[in-house]
Batch of 2 targets.
Target 1
Amino acid sequence: MRFRGRAWVFGDNIDTDVIIPGRYLNTTDPKELAAHCMEGVDPEFPRKVQPGDIMVAGRNFGSGSSREHAPISLRAAGISCVIAKSFARIFFRNAINIGLPVLECAEAVEAIAPGDELEVRLDTGEIHNCRTGQTFRAKPYPRFMLELIQAGGLIPYTRARLAKSQPSTV
Amino acid sequence: MGMTMAEKIIAAHAGLDRVEPGELVEVQVDFVMANDITAALAIQEFAKLEVEEVFDRERVAFVADHFVPPPNIKAAEQCMAVRNWARRKGILYFEGGRDGGIEHIVLPEQGLVLPGEIIIGADSHTCTYGALGAFSTGVGSTDAAVAMATGRLWLKVPSTMRLYYHGTLRPWVTAKDLILHTIGRIGVDGALYMAMFFTGPIIQALSMDGRFTIANMAIEAGAKAGLMEVDEKTLDYVRPRAKRPFTVYKDDPDARYEIDLDFDVSEWEPAIAVPHLPSNVRPVGELADLRIDQVFIGSCTNGRIEDLRLAAHILRGQRVHPEVRCIIIPGSGPTYRQALDEGLIDIFVEAGAVVGLPSCGPCMGGYSGVLGPGERCVSTTNRNFVGRMGHPTSEVYLANPAVAAASAILGRIASPEEIQIRAEAFAG
């Protein structure tokens, strides 16, 4: 899987209340959630982001609430993947589970400026900055998580397992 | 090498003799929970699995608490979908009423979450039940849906951070202050992916209500779980309620801790976490001139009977400042009933506070106390993120119930000492 898009750069501790404020959680509609994506830090974000763009952030991205509405709103807003120095654990799970790729790579984040064109290869974890020509390698996924991603998330993965009555490969 | 209780619980639920931190395992879960917001997504994901029934109707609960009673039509529709699904599938369902309230107060009260169990909840504060010696962790709606269908979940075995608390507590320093100071010291990702293990004489001396407060906020340090040893107090709490048999696990003497912290709490003061991170912790005295617009006493962190007693102790015979909205919400039906029986509700109403229906209330900016531009709230909740309780320019200051009550009276951030009551008089 490859992604190419412009970078949106944010700082540390971008929490899920900032990604999608609690007052909008009376819906599960991805389009409605996307309309308020990142409202806590940049209310114009949903209008500026283009399909395929890449979210880049510092430490502890997605901290706070377990609301899966956060990765759903990012994906529905057009974000193809998230690169951060580190992720809060529930957000990390939720993103993988719904099929939004997330990559942990502090060095890449340090070297990315807002608007940089990035190319990401999920299988190798390579993050290429087209502006600077630099390439970084994200922390590799364990085999099981790569299978989850390749299956398209936890639901398709579990469906396939249930259909075959197969145990997990964990 | 010995194992921690977190490792032992996970190993037992994975059918293994031992597990190592970092290992990915699949576990059998004992209980799955979701609330009105996260269940709304979970039932959609469940439908995609094409499974008819949940794995065990007695081990799946929806607790409607975030938008309850519904503040608008959309929230009402969302709650209807969740309620109808719960009734159709025959799972446990709580929504207000005699036994309902906030998920993290209801489930322990009802004896549905027990020591030695693995509990997952589609709510980040599911870590609260670690106070009962359970391995309990927050997940998203998709994880919850899969666990509802299969009774199973993948997880990474966390390493353990041990936190040992000793010394003498100063007046008005509560469980809330202990956890705020802890997060202030280790940071909002200080325990990322880890299990926190809270121990030492200070923890042992806390009531169960206080222990729940501490475990509740483990997530604010990034932790996967926040556990405590099971002792006589735990068993006294659990035994009369338990809906199932349970097992008690203890850390081995040679258990491995990735981080081992020792806190002498003797110098700690009542704490305030200022915007916009729970780790921005300051002694209350440093902020004493800051005017406020709202006080909220309640939530899964501080909505239990002991919290209400503490607030009532400060508010008894006092008046809420005329420029402050003071909202007090007992965390569950039984807590409300108890507060009523003890005369606490009388004290609150007489002081000029409004008492709300058991729910999450204004904590996540949903309703019943949403903040306008620039408004400031002293809150006994767990998060002070940008826009958490309303407008992005509003501000939330996290504090214990005594500080919140004192602030409500004086219209500014205040120490309980400023209200003419002797700390020793409170024996709650």
Target 2
Amino acid sequence: MELLTPGLGLIFWMTLSFGIVLLILRKFAWAPILGTIREREREIAISLRNAQHIKRELQELEVLKKQKVADAEKQHQEILIKAKTEAENLLREARIKASDDAHQLLENARKAIDVQRKSAMLEIKQQIANLSVDMAEKVLQEEFSDKDKNTRFVNGELEKVILN
Amino acid sequence: MHIKGKMRDILKNLFFAAIGCGIIFNVNPLYADEQEFLETDTVPPPSLTEYAETAAKEPGFDAGKVIIDHILDAYDWHLFDIGPKEISLPLPVILFYEGRFYFFLSSRFDHGHEAYKGFRIAHEGPRKNRIIRVLDDGKTPDPEASFVLDLSITKNVLSIFIGATLLCLIFVGIGKKYKHQGSRAVPSGLQSFLEPLVLFVRDEIALSAIGPKHYERFLPYLLSLFFFIFLNNILGLVPFFPGGANVTGNISVTLVLAMFTFLTTQLFANKGYWQHIFNTPGVPWWLKLPIPLMPMIELVGVIIKPFVLMIRLFANITAGHMIILGFVSLIFVLGEVSNAFGMAISPLSLVFLVFMGFLELLVAFLQAYVFTLFSALFFGMAVPEEHH
């Protein structure tokens, strides 16, 4: 068979086999292969888009999170400061109240002591007066005879007592 | 396009170089033998053609014959030689002659030496190396014989069957895998080698040459075409059975491939394509009327396009086979002159063979790519998108 002249038999068999190959591959190879590749590409495209979406959402969330954390931090600080001041206030009030109470107590005590002392004084005065009267009575009874002398004495004594 | 053009130039040069090699190897041993012949014999030297016939019968290495025998189709598949004995696979001969079918194995022809049932492989004439009807003496061609339709399973036909079967097995298997695993699976094994090629054909050839609107219609054909040519190119480079046949370097095969492309182009062509041929836009009217010069040129172009496809693939692959066989033959040609010569040249030949092997692998891919790309370009022209 010469180089440049086509042979009928070969053309016939080639057409037949290539035609069959075309049909078989079209149905059983290219359809599933191309279909799957296309499906995969579609999925990849969707996944990429989703990933971008998620990334953006994450970024938003991150911003939100940071904001939340900052808020919380601020709140926390505020609460701390507030608590501190409150504690200080409380302490100061307590201290003030305590000292007030102490003052009050002291005052009361002093007043009570005063009253006691005054009443004691009064009693002592009473006692002294009674005693004096008793003594005077006894002296009078004893010394009544010497009237002048007694009188002078009484007067002099009384004078002393009153002066004391 | 620039690099592609350059590659084509290189390949063209290689083709001519290969033809040159063939001629040189064809002449050299003859010349060497002729010297010997002149020394030993006093008979006047015969003419070159006369001598060629006698040389063919004599034992000895004829590189030209080896190369041409390989390039051409054959009725049996030559496997190897054991001493003087040729071991070859006989293939079925199928003939249709005068309303009758004839089936027999090609071993009946005894490598073309014998006639069988009035048929014989012609040794000369316009139907050289093809089966002709002979007279009862088993030698003379029958002058009154009508046409012999030869549907034999020749070496190339068997090789096509093997290639086609392999192609179907590979891709139907992979198709099943895709279907079975679904779109979530990572490609593995052969699949991961072929998927980039599939994507290459789809994106770089079909999509870029035809456009996004129509490319999917042509994709199955383009993929089949690409892998058919690629696989058969590769099989042709395998030096032993079942490879080694020169399938894609056979003009009948490339003719059929080009015909498929041609018919597909015409069948899918839309209005824009025919308008471009018969009423080319942007061309002055006097080129169309009264003598339809442009339509004629365009119509010729329609035929020439697939014709060029046919020639390009055929020439490139044939040239590659010729060069490789040329380097192999070089060892034996020089070895016949003297053993030392053959020994000396074999490392050099081997280096060139390895280099050519790699180049041919590149060409195997490149030619599959070019054939498919041009087919895609013609389809792209057949379905132009209306944007004039």
